[in-house]
Amino acid sequence: MRKVAVVGAGMTKFMRRAQETGKELAWETAKLALDSCELTVKDVDCVVMGTAPDAFDMVHMKHEYLSDGAGAWRKPYVRGVLGGGTGVFTACQAWYHVASGMFDVCLAVTEEKMSSCLPHPQGAFVTCWDQFTESPLGTSLLWFFAWEMNRYMTSHGITEREIALVSVKNKKNALHHPCAQLPGEITVDDVMKSEIMAWPVKRLDVSPTSDGAAVLVFASEEVAKRITDRPVWVQGVGWCLDTMYIGQRDLYYPKYVEYAARMAYDMAGIKDPRREIDIAEPYDPFSYKELHHGEGLLLCDKGEAVRLLVDGETQKTGRQPWCPSGGALGVGNAIAATGVMKVAELFWQLRGEAGERQVPGRPRRGVAQAWGDEMQVGTVVVLGV
Amino acid sequence: MSEKIKSWPGTPLGEKEIKEKRILVTEWQPNLKYAWDTGAGYGRDFAELKKGKIVGTKCNKCRRTLLPARLFCEWCFRTADEWVYLKDTGTVNTFSVAYTGTAAERLKVPRIPALIEIDGSGGVAIMHLISDVDPWKVKIGMKVKAVWKPKQKREGAITDIDYWKPI
Lengths: 385, 167
Description:
The complex is a heterodimer. Chain A has helices at 22-36, 62-65, 86-99, 141-156, 160-173, 188-193, 221-227, 255-268, 273-276, 287-296, 305-310, 327-330, 335-350, and strands at 4-11, 46-50, 77-79, 105-113, 196-199, 201-202, 211-220, 232-241, 279-281, 365-372, 377-384. Chain A is an alpha/beta fold. The mean pLDDT of chain A is 96. Chain B has helices spanning 15-19, 39-50, and strands spanning 54-59, 64-66, 72-73, 78-79, 82-86, 89-95, 97-100, 106-118, 125-130, 143-148, 161-166. In chain B, the strands form three sheets. In chain B, strands 6, 7, 8, 9, 10 and 11 form a six-stranded antiparallel sheet that branches. In chain B, strands 2-1-5 form a three-stranded antiparallel sheet, with helices on one face. In chain B, strands 3-4 form a two-stranded antiparallel sheet. The chains are: A alpha/beta, B mainly beta. At the A-B interface, β1, α1, α4 and β5 of A face β6, β7, β8 and β9 of B.
């Protein structure tokens, strides 16, 4: 397989509600990403689209609706959907389009417009679950996370206050992100006092719903070396789906993330991810998820992520910063676009272009991860310079 | 951030713009209706629930119970070997005290959704609700028993079990 580089990136602000339509968001971002590497739509050989459930917009087959904004017409075009795992998977998908030798330049466009769904986009999820054994119970999306957080806390003896530190860290990191929706200086007490949504999940443990888009430009080695002297290489990709029967897997540990990570690390030749990875962007739609996913990414032992957090090792200036972007908790969570926002953060960090968010010590390798489908898919990308 | 990017696209809107109708929107409320066939696996499940019994299937090769009952084992990819009756008691695997409903609307009285490991299944859990208990006294590991709806009110659905109650 051929070497593949990320050569350009762009994103919109993440917002509770955007005035722009989905395709306007997609267009502005695709244009921005292409401009950032001085390519035009004519240089693009194929387009991959990532956008999560159609039910958010109730525009069925919304990849068609978004296709002109994605620059897809008269080009090979395909959409991959893995729910919340879609964004990082879109990067995997772009990678194999180019690595296969079929295309030299692939535009990876992700877009989400959640605000169209009234009164709240959470209602759209009722059509995602088993229509016989789950939805009839009046199921709420938050139950799944509450169950998992409770199981995770109880299995390892972790407290809600410790987990709250993730929200504190990420919202603070997001203060320096120009596209952030919910940055802020908050305290553990603020999290603890915030409204109980579905105990143990409290309002400040949850990322917001967002509108936004994020785009990456992928290129073959030959093209990448011609157009930039700072390509960021895709070193590994992985993805894995676990059982949809939630009562059949133990929620305390995301095994599917581990499988996806092992696939990506094998490809990248990484033997010890704790030492060989400089920065990580685990998916953090909920505060506990950053810890849970960090363990699945084999960045520490099971139950130990909280120790890294409390000791400051995952802070921006720590040994291995986690979510230096500010994550979904701080930047916002435009589902599919969040995954690409995380890959874009690695791209900017590894090129030393992250401005005030730049982590010290010239990071050379990073991992980004997303999670979704019926809360049991892991998608992983390793980038390096 | 990338030095080449000076301004970031996107125009955030607030409540004000929408309430004061400063932006134009088009609304649509779909009226959709579906009838889903339960299939052979769930069909038997629900027929048994109507009788007040919880049933599963077994894969003798993987030595595990399939619950909710289904016709094939997804791991060894064979037809399930037999139907087994399980108890209507179980253990709380995990739970939540939920103040939000399906569309994130707020509930005054919290619900207690839980994963309940069904006795006799070897630790396989189903999704259901706990009730008739102070929510803050529920614990992982607590034993619970199904409270069935009265016979005439059962319709062959997961909701034929009204809720689960600590024992």
